Amino acid sequence: MILFSPAFACCVLLALAASYVWACLASPLRQVPGPPSSLFTSWVLKWHEFRAGRTRYVHRLHLRYGPVVRIAPREVAFASAEGVKEIYGAGGSGYDKTEFYDLFQVYGRRTMFSTLNKQDHAKRKRVLADRYANTNVLRSASMDGIKERSKRFVDRCSKSIGGSIDLFVRSHFSPFLARIFLNSSQVFMIMLLTVSVIISSTPMGPTRFRTRKTRRSCGKSLSTIAFKVHRLLSYYNPGLHAIVKNILALFSKPRETPLADNLVLTATSKSDPLEFTLLSRMQDKNYDLEQLDMAAECTDHMAAGIDTTGDALCFLMWEISQPRSLHVQQRLQEEIQSTTPDTPFDKLPYLDAAVMEGLRCFPAIPMSLPRYVPPGGRTIDGYYIPGGTIVSAQAYSTHRIDRRVFPEPERFNPDRWLAEDGGDLDRKRLFFAFASGGRGCIGKHLALAEMKTLLIDVYSRYSTRPDESMTDGDMEMSDQLISSQPRGQKCWMKLVPFKEPS
Ligand code: HEM
């Protein structure tokens, strides 16, 4: 009978609680600096994550506790060059990804981005890597495609003269980036070209562009939040997710792209892709990929490339448009004017510095990129971390934490990248916008080519200014699952012709 008495139940609960506390106190992670609560519970971290504030929370902990900080009982964040090198560079590809990346499977398949272990990743990367090499991106056929689409984008923007445009909508839902991808056909497959055309003519294309007349404040959409909660819950607590998913489904609507999906699936079912395309590589019998794997990979690259480049451009142009940064805009315009139209985009040092500084201040993927410490544990940046612990670095913090390398880290200052102070190596070691190591961004060269081409086209013809309706809060970085967006989900700007007609 004693087994069913409340006193016995209390004793059992107390014993369980005591053994949990004992295990936490005995953990090697106790030696790692961090808030006391993080030794016992991950709920504080999750609370911030569900409220789209994880990046800032982790950064606050770094500011308080230093470049190595315990953020949960089995999770440690690093913001040092040593930490980044060990976690993302050890053995080439760094440590394995965690199940967090299950959330990024497409059509139920793992893509290069969502493969977890080194072996699977290396196998997939062998198929795809050469298509994204800088030499491929710089080929004139690719660059011509990028330039042509960039010009079209700027022409379209010119229709807003005298009014304002929403750059966030343009750079995310406009055909510009999609078309650039699709038209840099030496880099991408022809299939993507077709998809881009479709994207541009769907409701996500020009018909959704917002002008002053149609402006409405969309703010933070309930649907977006619910969708994110949906996915995070399925990762952290599948049991609870199974219970509440139907309720969440009432509020959350995933971004649907039925035409693009359909086209990707149709194109990958055909058997005669052009020789230079990703698809031709993936259809090579030696690689033994199913059609759905190829379609998933294509869709994933579009998603990985469009949102990130769009976010990065949006934040950078916004900053350049602020009164405090008008000198940056002027120097950019002067540099562009001092060159001939044939000057390659990568031969403009100030433009390069501005883009680097934009990616430093507003990395499109600012959040932790979680990895597992291999079995047996490792010593990382002076701390022993047991096997199976989740370790990560986030660009937002590596770009800010070391004030010797990045003085006045909150200030947008492209000149820091041009300083001849011997600090270039340190700056590059902490620059993490494209991550690093074997799992760093494969589309980096393409992204830089797109961003610089567009900036040249815009700032050779226009000056940009913020629209009066915008507030600083609208452009605060708000966490998505792994990337970030302007909190207000809008970025209204004015384009003023650079040379006023005389
Ligand atoms: C400014 C633009 C971009 C930024 C800031 C960016 C950033 C990143 C980062 C931080 C990662 C590592 C993510 C992780 O480890 O979890 C990554 C991976 C990746 N990115 Fe990008 N990216 C950009 C543009 C692009 C473009 C244009 C493409 C291609 C169309 C692309 C395709 C990929 C792919 C396929 C991966 C997975 C690589 C792998 O696992 O080996 N990205 N990107």
TrEMBL record:
Species per Swiss-Prot/TrEMBL record: Apiospora phragmitis
Domain of life: Eukaryota
Annotated InterPro entries: Cyt_P450, Cyt_P450_E_grp-I, Cyt_P450_sf, Cytochrome_P450_monoxygenase
Segments passing through the bilayer: 187-206
Signal sequence region: 1-23
Nucleotide-binding recorded as keyword: no
Swiss-Prot/TrEMBL keywords: Heme, Iron, Membrane, Metal-binding, Signal, Transmembrane, Transmembrane helix
Protein name per the record: Cytochrome P450
Keyword Transmembrane helix: yes
Pfam families: p450
